[in-house]
Amino acid sequence: MAYSKLGEMLEKGEFILTGELEPEKTCDLSHTIQEAKEMAPYVVAANMTDSPLGIVTINSLAASAIVQRETGLEIIWQQTVRDVNKLGLAGMVMGAHALGIRNVLSLTGDHTNLGDVKEAKPVFDLDSATFVKLVREMVDKKSINGHEIECPPTLHVGAAANPNADPMEAEILKIGRKAEAGAEFIQTQVVYDLDRTIEFLRGIKKYGVPVLLGLFPMKSYGIAKGFDTFVPGVDVPKDVLSKWKGIKTDITDKKAQKEAYDQANYEFFKPFITELKSKNLLDGVHCMAVHYPRIFPKLVEVIKG
Amino acid sequence: MVVITTKKEVPEVLEALKDVNKIAIISCGTCAALCQTGGTEGLKYWSDILEEKGYDIVVGAVIEEVCDNRVMKKDLRKMDNEIAEADAILTASCGLGTQSIVEVLSNKYPKKPVITANDTQFMGMTERIGRFYMRCQGCGDCLLNETGGICPIATCAKGLMNGPCGGMVNGKCEVGNYERDCGWVLIYNRLKELGKLDLYTKLREPRDWSESGHQREVVFR
Ligand code: SF4
Ligand code: SF4
Q1: Which of A109, A112, A117, A243 has the fewest CB atoms nearer than 10 Å to its CB?
Q2: Which of A110, A130, A170 lies closest to B164 in CB terms?
Q3: Superfamily for B2-123?
Q4: What is the pLDDT of residue B146?
Q5: Does B96 touch chain A (CB under 8 A)?
Q6: What whole-number distance in Å separates Cα of residue B21 and Cα of residue B90?
């Protein structure tokens, strides 16, 4: 049974492109709405982040509901187990349904200790697998702890995976738990290493959960460098960094520079995705490059064929 | 097992003692002594500071196991005259010791404040003196038989039942700048060595807080 466009495409086995929206510390969602409008023609749905890095932003569910209502773009509500206990999460799942949200991505969430409200009590009552299980109980069994829900929610629930994880086997087996819990799709952390990605995707194939691979097209050399430096466990390849650096230094015309970056992203990701598709390891792509909506037409080209 | 304590900052303790003059210091000779927050060391530390600030130390005693009500009843009786004279009692012990004294004395001396000199950190495992680690949080439903003898609640920064999380990089945890081991990778490695990865792949239910999420007691007699 499909409850959303994402659910329908998963059911039909169609190749999926999703985007990502990162609302900020503000009550004004106009920037997020603008970005959602720009990516809407190209993506099936977009994720709405939940205070990434523990840096507090506007509530993810509120932002999901408003942006979806204002733009018509289907939202994948990201919800971490960091700030809310089981009781609260169950209530939010029903609230999400009532607000028209039909997809949720279950995440652990970065520890409060990393963010800007370090003194907050870290909750982690559930974990990302048992939150998936809770959603599935609410949707499929129409109950919480065996207690009936009068009008039950209908949401598709996904989980995250990290192909860069080392030891990889520990991560692969963990995806098995998420599959057992009932995850209907997987969205991965950003990848750049093709061999590792192949090994990982082969490792989790047996669980039969559709995988949307996390990509991070880099809008500029500064962004690429920043990502390489500040995102632990993910390295941007050296040749990519030097190519992006070359674009920054060699092309002075702003418009030409933008086009060169977009083209470089296309040239890097096209063979990457083609290879994975040819090996039948992918069900879609999740683009995590926030504030770079102009890349979507190129990404559509990347995943074509 | 040791209840790990650290000394409170002096101004905080002085603030708590600002309305009194005569002080009885009870220093715990057991866990706090090992942590150098109690015992003879803690007693001397606080006596010196308070005397220098002009306080009158009516008695200073090192007592083993201040957390045991029976011990405190017996030992406090022996120094009842000094306790009666003191305006307040300062305890160089863990929070259990302080409360043990409160409970033992509150009937006879309901108006006498008992002030703690320490911050109680956790139940600790001792590597050597000065190096203590939290390895158990007393959750009330021990999982060690399923996790290769490594506690996910104490060694995972998020106390996850199904780790590792996305914050693990090269076996290290996102909390503490990737310097500490990820508890779930330790569990994975250990279970792998034991040939018991089936225990690792098992989807675990969330912790049950129904009994442990409020006041806890063990009463069997
Ligand atoms: S599971 Fe961990 S916290 Fe719970 S009793 Fe065992 S060692 Fe202690
Ligand atoms: S990195 Fe490991 S220890 Fe740290 S929070 Fe995640 S699972 Fe727990």
Answers
A1: A117
A2: A170
A3: Response regulator (3.40.50.2300)
A4: 97
A5: no
A6: 12
CB contact under 8 A, B206 and A127: yes
Chain B nearest C-alpha distance from A166 (Å):
5
- Give tens-digit pLDDT for B150-161: 999 999 999 999
Domain CATH for A174 = 3.20.20.220
Q: What is the pLDDT of residue A300?
A: 97
Q: Nearest-CA neighbor of A132 among A169, A93, A165?
A: A93
Q: Please report whether residue A264 resides in a domain.
A: no
pLDDT, tens digit (0-9, with 9 covering 90-100), for B14-28: 999 999 999 999 999
Q: Examine residue A241 and state whether it is found in any structural domain, yes or no.
A: no
pLDDT higher than threshold 80 for residue A5: yes
Scanning every residue of chain A, which has its alpha carbon at the shortest distance from the alpha carbon of B161? A127
Residue A13 in this model has a pLDDT that exceeds 70: yes
pTM of the entire structure? 0.96
Count of residues making up chain A: 305
> Does some domain include residue A242?
no
Q: Would you list the domain boundaries of chain B?
A: 2-123, 135-201
Spell out which residues of chain B touch residue A113, defining contact as CB-CB under 8 Å.
157, 175
> How does the average pLDDT of chain A come out, rounded?
97
Whether residue A246 lies inside any domain: the answer is no
Only one residue has tokens 């829900």, namely A149
Is B139 close to ligand 1, i.e. is its CB under 6 Å away?
Answer: yes
Q: Is A121 exposed, middle or buried (0-12, 13-18, 19+ CB in 10 A)?
A: exposed
Compute φ and ψ for B157, nearest 5 degrees: -60, -25
Q: Which residues of A touch B168 (CB under 8 A)?
A: 165
- Domain holding A192, by residue range, is 5-235+269-303
Rg (Cα) of chain B, in Å, rounded?
Answer: 22
Asked if the bond preceding B110 is cis, omega within 30° of 0, the reply is no
Q: Return the half-sphere exposure (C-beta side, CA atoms, 13 A cut-off) of residue A132.
A: 25
Q: Give the mutation candidate from B137, B146, B153, B158 for the A interface (greatest A CB count, under 10 A).
A: B158
Closest CA to B95 of B61, B66, B136: B66
Judge whether B208 is closer than 8 Å to chain A, CB to CB.
no
Q: Which of B125, B134, B137 to mutate to test the pocket of ligand 1 (most atoms within 8 A of CB)?
A: B137
Per the structure, how many domains does chain A have? 1
**ipTM, two decimals:** 0.96
Q: What confidence tens digit (pLDDT) does each residue in A58-98 have?
A: 999 999 999 999 999 999 999 999 999 999 999 999 999 99
- Of the partner residues B162, B168, B203, the one whose CB lies closest to the CB of residue A165: B168
